[in-house]
Amino acid sequence: MTMPDTRADTVTGLLRRPDLRVSPGQWAALAVLTVVAWLGATSFIGQYRPNQVAQLVELIVPGQRAFLVMLAVAAALAALGYLLRRMTFAHGSLIVAGFLAGHALYARLYPLLGLRIEIPLTSFSDGLAFAGSRLLWAVCVAVIVIPLWLITFARQPGEPRQLSLGWGDWSVEAREFSAKREPERYSRMLIAGYAAFILILFVLMQFNVAFRPLRTGALFSLAPAILISAVTNAAAEEFIFRGLIQPVFIRIGGIAAGLWMQGALFGLVHWGASVGVLAALPVSLGIGLGSVMWGKAALETRGLGWVTVAHALVDVAVMSAFFV
């Protein structure tokens, strides 16, 4: 079985392709796993950064141990899937449980390594500490999820069978959002249209903070700290979400549903890390939509290089305003 060619489709066009449509049950399975992963990750973040979204999660899952509850739910769903011989769903639930268990491992190791996240950044050492914490999080999730992948999906017939974690091929021609435009190479897509978007985003982010980082000169002195923070954060998140979670969702619900639901999870997790429920929702929806495009890029380039660079550019624009 080979993966369908999606390069000529837009991210919305994928949902209309007859050969990529899946059953309501597959959508429901993905939705359940997305909600469990989101509730677990948000409650974990809420233990250290209490915010309105974390408080909302406590209303859905009462008590201070919502993270452990969601970890147990994921494990129970895996057991139920095996009992009912729904192997793909069982494997996916096991991966979600591993994703949450990686957060628990991170919580154990973080204080032992003496890492401290300080935002806003005040020095290059703050940038190194932030980078170290993001890399540690990615490693903790990976050391649990990758072995689970190898003993579940890697042995089960179907595509994708292997994880595409390399640099990838940027010469692939594809479409993003517009069906009217001819497919273009991902390398040109990044240099041309995407660069303009980053410039606009940078100006909008600076406008939100009255251009203070530029006016005071703090942005220039902290540029190395921002750069290392952006690159490591992008690499860590792309490795986990597009590298490890996305292939699981594709195995469960196919390409179209898998890409859109991994985007939903990524947007919801960022919503859970934000301060306000309503204020952060539009931005989180935009992040989710953008990550569907990133997921398509990772799938079609067969690697994480392009999406990591694209993600890092976004993070530079955002962190240049809110990390200074």
What does this structure look like?
The protein is mainly alpha-helical. The chain has one domain (about 20-160, about 180-320). It has helices spanning about 25-50, 50-60, 65-85, 85-110, 125-150, 185-210, 210-215, 220, 225-270, 280-300, 305-320; strands spanning about 175, 185. It is globular and about 60 Å long. The relative contact order is 0.16.
SSE pattern: HHHHHEEHHHHHH
Radius of gyration: 20 Å
Shape: globular
Structural class computed from helices and strand pairing: mainly alpha
Uncertain stretches: none
How far apart are the termini? 49 Å
What structural keywords apply?
mainly alpha; 324 residues; 70% helix; 1% strand
Summarize the topology.
Blueprint: H1 24-48, H2 52-60, H3 66-83, H4 87-112, H5 124-151, E1 173-174, E2 184-185, H6 186-208, H7 212-216, H8 218-221, H9 223-272, H10 281-301, H11 305-322
Antiparallel strand pairs: 1-2
Helix pairs in contact: 1-2, 1-3, 1-4, 1-9, 3-4, 4-5, 4-9, 5-9, 6-11, 9-10, 9-11, 10-11
Describe, in short, the structure shown.
Helix content is 70%, strand content 1%.
